Structure formats: structure tokens, C-alpha cells
Amino acid sequence: MKLADLRSVLERHPDSFPRFVLPEGDFIPPHAHVTEVGHVVKNFIDCGGVLGKSETVLLQTHVGQDTDHRLKTDRFAKILELGKRVLPHDQLEVEVEYDCCVVAQYPVSEAKPAGKHLDVVLGKRRTQCLAQEQRKAAGATEACCATAATCC
């Protein structure tokens, strides 16, 4: 979900309480704080030598000791507004960082009203071999690693 879309949903539901829904249906604890809005730029080279770049908005969540804390969507929107100072534009995809036992990042799939809550539904992200995907797109029939010059 793009940042502009998330902002729009938050503005339409200012009195809701956001819930972050993990990919398997569990929730990040309701007293989680959104403690950081970041602009993450990743420049990389894949195993086939192709350069790539990705940019996202990363929302860091923190589950502290204050179990009475509840973030409302109007405050969440204000936190995103503060992020404008570090974000180049609002058409970036949004990800949520959650420290459940290791730090994990989830793309935001959608945000939807659910009674007094606004469910921020998180998706899954997997690693992939971009060189293999490029070879498939180009119509290559042999396995990706058949020739060392084109892949890992």
C-alpha cells in the first residue's frame, strides 16, 4: 500500500484505533507505538550482475511496558505527517517493522475499518533471485545457474 493511500484511510477514520494484523492473522500488541517513520533506500546488485534499487517508507513499531497506551488513527496520521520531513514523496510503498523476537519487516497490504479499529493488514515478503526472474522473462529455458556468466 502506498503512503498516500494509508494517509487517506487514516484521515477518513480519525477516531479508530489502528491494529496491525500480521500475515498469519495475529496482531501486534495493541499498546504498540509507532516510534519512527523512515525513508529506506536499498541499492543492490543481484547474483547475475544486474543493478537494482528499491525505496520504501518504514514504520517502526515498539511494544513497550505501557500497556494502557493506545494509538488512535488521528495521532498515527500526525506521526506520518512528521515523516514528510524525511520522505521524498507519498507514492512509496509502506512497510512495518516489528520486533517479535527478531526484527521483521512486513509490507502493508491494505487498511480497512473493523468496528472501532482500523486494521492495517500486513503481507509477506520473500527473497527471490532476480536474475532467475529476468531469465524467465527473456524466455531462457535452461536453469538459472546453468551458466555462471548469467547467474549465481
Folded structure, characterized:
The chain is of the alpha/beta class and 152 residues long. The protein is 18% helix and 36% strand. It is built from 3 helices and 6 strands, in the order αβββαβββα. The mean pLDDT is 89.
Q: Output mean pLDDT.
A: 89
End-to-end gap: 32 Å
What kind of oligomer do you see?
Answer: single chain
Number of domains: 1
User: How many helical elements?
Assistant: 3
Could you give the order of the helices and strands? HEEEHEEEH
Biggest sheet features = 6 strands, mixed
Radius of gyration of CA atoms, rounded to a whole number:
19 Å
Helix/sheet category? alpha/beta
Give helix % range. Answer: 10-25%
Binned strand content: 35-45%
Low-confidence stretches: none
Number of strands: 6
